[in-house]
What we know:
Layout: E1 6-10, H1 16-28, E2 32-34, H2 48-58, E3 61-66, H3 68-72, H4 74-85, E4 90-95, H5 100-115, H6 121-136
Parallel strand pairs: 1-2, 1-3, 3-4
Amino acid sequence: MRNKTTIFLSHSSKDLEKVRNIRNVFEVLNCDALIFYLKCLDDGNPNLEQFIKDEIEARNIFVYCKSANAEASPWVQKELEYIKSLSGKLLYILDIEKDFAVQLISLLSSILEIIKNTRYSSLIRIILQKQYSQLLIT
């Protein structure tokens, strides 16, 4: 049994709906895509930053959902800087303010290579292109 591919989706909470669509696509691939929607980011909890770092370390892929909101978010920027400081982690940047359906299909193709899901990879690509392209274009 292969290990499940785990993904940390770094995003601004203001972009939550778009990021949920992205997470749903990853779930079709049986990837464990984690998104945080934490209302406690500003509560001053001293353990929160370490908790987020632990979650990043536990994932083998990091996807930065780039947007003006993400660039303005101190938390998202901390996550991005932290992942850059780690070795052995894959970092993908997905600009969700542009036509990110094409970007996402390219990213998914890379992930399919990583998870070696060759039995279904062509079928999944076709399904994603047909079913999710319209969903992802906003």
